[in-house]
Amino acid sequence: MIIESINPATEEIIARFTPTSSEDIDSAIKRAKQAQKQWQDKTKSERISILMNIKENIIKHKKEIAAAVNEECGFDLNETEDGILDIIDGFDYYIDIYKKKNNIDFPIDKDVFPESDAEIRFYPLGVIAQIGIWNYPFWQTMITVIPALLTGNAILYKPSEHSTKVGLLIADIINNSKDMPKDIFIPIIGGAEQGSYLIKSDVDAIVYTGNIKTGHEIIKNAGIKPLILELSGNDSAIICSDCDIDQTLAGVISGAFLHSGEVCDRIKRIYIVKDIAEKFLERAIEKIKALNEQITPLISADALQKVDNQIKKTIEDGAELLIGGKRINKKGFYYEPTLLKLKHNDVESVKNEIFGPVVSLLVVEDENKAMKYANSIRYGLGTSIWTQNFEKAKKIADKAESGMVWINDSNIPLICGEYFQGWKSTSIPNASDRLSMFLKKKCIISFNSDEKRDWWN
Ligand code: NAD
User: Fold this and answer.
1) Which of 160, 168, 263, 379 to mutate to test the pocket of ligand 1 (most atoms within 8 A of CB)?
2) Edge-to-edge strands of the sheet including 104-106?
3) Lower Cβ count inside 10 Å, N or C end of the chain?
């Protein structure tokens, strides 16, 4: 099946691509395996110098990348350019920590093990299948590419079928960088079929970013190999009665409707303490109304339909529609910014992430109840806490069952995705820092003697 690239703002087809055949995927894996050995054998400084060339090439093509992301995925130009700048800084960040990443001499009890020593050495995982995503397609791709290439891995990169053009541009920029060897970064074109074929193949590890349903399929199909999975989120905002109402309104509404809600760690659920709920709601509706002009398109007609179905299901389950709730009547996959006031916590929008411009709000008795509801789901990406009592905020942060917590803020990542992982069913991160994610360790224990151990026969 031909892959069609569609501009979500105009619904026009902008490019058509033929998917990579199974034979070509097999051949790409063989070539990558060969090439990876030589890549791994290069010195640290040789690889660093090539990564710096990739960085330079990205700087050269910055505008082109942002324009491609805007055209194919509907993302705002300025926001994309900020993401590119973060990646550019990310090269320096990962290179700096890679320079300091050395083998470890591990202490050994010399009384029990005389003449012995132990060393931990680090090696690349090998050939990685990277199954890409279309939201922030450049940023999401590069937060894996930089640490994975630096540490000596090769990558078979399948961009999402919704961002093939961006994916091929990334591959061109990387592969046309000075001194970049062949077959270390190979693009694979396709959708679920090619992704599924790739993860069942003889690759050494899988990096997947996407929804939890596909995550389950990957776990079922991949066999036993390192899996790095970054899956769905359903982040909550806990609004305490002692928050600064102006700050909270601005921060929460912006954090909920960022890029029309197509953001894994945006605010999707609001739990607000009853004392300030009325004041917040009135002004929130006004603010959301004013967003209509800024709303960006959803990625596809299917995504738009899915959002609409989930909103309807949430209302059936027990919610009142306060604003929004339908497609915007113009060309492009636009949906109205929507606010749902929940009657209870057992509804579709709590159980399953809605990847669109929708936020659900539940009024609660107190902060303890808010925390209980926030933690009640299978996802664990982020939590934001809104209060001017910073001591209390830190205590609530401690109880949040999520990998990211923001106090009076939301959505902000550390440089180049560092430590950006969820808890529970949101992530299988493999290691906590991103450089270590793409390394495996070898533990070497050596008895430096011609003696026998005491307990040997
Ligand atoms: P999706 O699973 O439909 O697609 C993602 C990628 O997986 C695509 O490249 C697709 O071709 C491929 N794919 C689909 N089925 C496959 C299969 N069976 N085997 C192998 N590959 C397959 O994902 P989506 O629904 O478009 O993504 C949106 C989701 O991504 C949201 O839930 C969002 O929260 C999540 N996300 C998470 C993070 C994070 O860091 N946790 C970041 C961005 C997006």
Assistant:
1) 160
2) 104-106, 116-124, 439-447
3) C
